[in-house]
Amino acid sequence: MDHRKLVIIPTFNEKENILEMIQSVMGLVGGFELLVIDDGSPDGTGDLVKSKKSDFPGRLHLIEREGKLGLGTAYITGFKWALERDYDFIFEMDADFSHNPEDLIRLYQACAEKHFDLAIGSRYITGVNVVNWPMGRVLMSYFASVYVKFITGLPVKDSTAGFKCYHKSVLKGIKLDEVKFVGYAFQIEMKFTSWKLGFKLVEVPIIFTDRTKGTSKMSRGIFKEAVLGVIMMKIKSIINPYTLNQNGLTE
């Protein structure tokens, strides 16, 4: 079966990377499509995407938003756009080549051929596979996942990973308008919610390479949100257990 596959990449000031990323994704076997969601990048990232749309008619898409509205809201916008157009598999990916575009195929295979609902590109499932990160950041990321598992029970070694493939049923089943977090906590919340709803998760080992161009968007505020957000998610799951979005599943 020829599945429809959409890669969603949020951007803010990624002019150094976006053209090469477009070429990389468009060049993959399997007819991947790409949706760039640009938050009003003052460096002209959105204009660069527009300049390439005619090269890939019907495969390269752009949503431009006014101002920096956050990673989580960008992905929610993309998820809704994808569901409205009935894509079969929807991917999350960074623009900075920390995620290898060729690994999209492996994530797709995990869902399409091995029948998992959510495939996670994992830095920690086979040790610590991170290149060019300072040791302090490696430890912060690794122990964040240890913390998440301890608090929530989520059986995932890389709970903050942002490289993922969803089968459309997962995104239809999640009440997307109730997802509130924007950074690390957004990535954790989506995995935790998927797991609580009974979807099948799998971690696919990847090598994560820190960006060589552009500027990281990580901040202390994003990390703090994750620490507090995990506790909030756990409490919510006890007081108000997660339920499938039946309206989404029947649309």
Radius of gyration: 17 Å
User: Termini separation (Å)?
Assistant: 22 Å
Oligomer: single chain
* Major sheet characteristics: 7 strands, mixed
Strand order of the largest sheet: 3-2-1-4-7-5-8
Question: Can you describe this structure?
Answer:
The chain is built from nine helices and nine strands. The chain is 41% helix and 16% strand. It is α/β, with parallel strands linked by helices and 251 residues long. The radius of gyration is 17 Å and the shape is globular. The model has no long low-confidence stretch (mean pLDDT 91). The strands form two sheets. The chain has a seven-stranded mixed sheet with strand order 3-2-1-4-7-5-8, sandwiched between helices. Helix 5 (135-152) runs parallel beside helix 8 (220-239) and helix 7 runs parallel beside helix 8. It has helices spanning 18-26, 45-53, 71-84, 103-112, 135-152, 168-173, 184-196, 220-239, 246-250; strands spanning 5-11, 33-38, 60-64, 89-92, 118-122, 130-131, 164-167, 201-205, 208-209. Helix 1 (18-26) links the parallel strand 1 and strand 2.
Task: Itemize the secondary structure elements and their pairings.
Elements: E1 5-11, H1 18-26, E2 33-38, H2 45-53, E3 60-64, H3 71-84, E4 89-92, H4 103-112, E5 118-122, E6 130-131, H5 135-152, E7 164-167, H6 168-173, H7 184-196, E8 201-205, E9 208-209, H8 220-239, H9 246-250
Parallel strand pairs: 1-2, 1-4, 2-3, 5-8, 6-9
Antiparallel strand pairs: 4-7, 5-7
Helix pairs in contact: 5-8, 7-8
